[in-house]
Amino acid sequence: MIVLGIESSCDETAAAIVDDRRQVLAERLFSQLDDHRPYGGVVPEVAARAHLEHLGPLIAETMRAANVGFADLDAVAATAGPGLIGGVIVGVTMAKAIAAVHGKPFLAVNHLEGHALSARLSDDVPFPYLLLLVSGGHCQLLVVEDVGVYRRLGATIDDAAGEAFDKAAKLLGLAYPGGPAIERAAKTATAPIADLPRPMLGRPDCNFSFSGLKTALRQRVETLRKDGVLGAATVANLAAGFEQAVADSVADRTKRAITTARETVPGLSALVVAGGVAANQRLRGALAAVADRAHLPMVAPPIRLCTDNAAMIAWAGLEHFKRGQTDTLDFAPRPRWPLDADAPALRGAGVKA
Ligand code: KG4
Ligand code: ZN
Description:
Elements: E1 2-7, E2 12-19, E3 24-31, H1 33-36, H2 44-66, E4 75-81, H3 85-102, E5 106-110, H4 111-123, E6 129-134, E7 139-146, E8 149-155, H5 161-171, H6 178-187, H7 211-226, H8 232-264, E9 271-274, H9 281-293, E10 298-299, H10 303-306, H11 311-322
Parallel strand pairs: 1-4, 4-5, 6-9, 9-10
Antiparallel strand pairs: 1-2, 2-3, 6-7, 7-8
This protein binds 5'-O-[(R)-(carboxyoxy)(hydroxy)phosphoryl]adenosine and zinc ion.
Zinc ion binds at residues 111, 115, 135, 137-138, 308.
């Protein structure tokens, strides 16, 4: 059984072909990072145009690399939301066209479900497990009980973790994307700033918040700049302090979620960590310690499957297809599409749930 997957919900244009034996036959990804870098963030209009320009050739190249023709496919899957709607429409329209022309089933995949199930593609993780999803657009903790059965334990009430890294990097005069730049700078720190706030620490819920930490960092930066002591060494110490504060906060929220999940779901198999921020070594270390203390294996899919990619979309589509579930060609792309529709609504400045 082989499925073509298409991802175009943010700033990565991607195609992949995956089979039901967890093999990625081929995958191609075009990162639009250079298109968005001048703006210091993803510009939806620019992204949609870039997806339109690159997606067709990228799919053709993926098919060639896998030595597969459209007739060989069992189904075509595309991210149908949530995400920047212009890009989502490009991917969904392409998938529907291929499905219609070649008489194949179409699978509308929830991008978050792609992240949620990626650890089953990489590591065959059995249900149920706890997922921490930390990226530029998402920040949530979910119990993954089965295909299509997700329970959200918590999410950010303002910025996503990656967004916080990106904003902090901007404040510190570091490059975009901010996460890798902060991690690089932090490695050279000699005296990390230790007294930045750890948002939400010890709270009984499993939500995240980063805006207070960002404000604290901004105030520190302004004071230090006024005093004329904001050189590279100080920036490195601030970067390390910020990184540690995020790691402490996310680790605390995850620890809380393990306890909460275990109250109702027996037999959690693992803590799965996904999303671009999962690349951060300090965060990984903090999470590994939490998992270890909870006697829970930690699974982090390889980075190419952790960040936005099409293999996870093909795989999530396949998991549904194996259960006999497909979608009709009138499925409408969705800018918002929560995995757990029953989760309580969150309030905050820029809720990313
Ligand atoms: O999953 P991803 O590639 O795209 C989505 O947002 O969906 O995540 C990108 C985010 C960016 O905000 C970036 O700054 C952050 O992940 N990131 C990191 C690191 N690498 C990427 N954050 C902290 N440390 C890193 N090493
Ligand atoms: Zn994503």
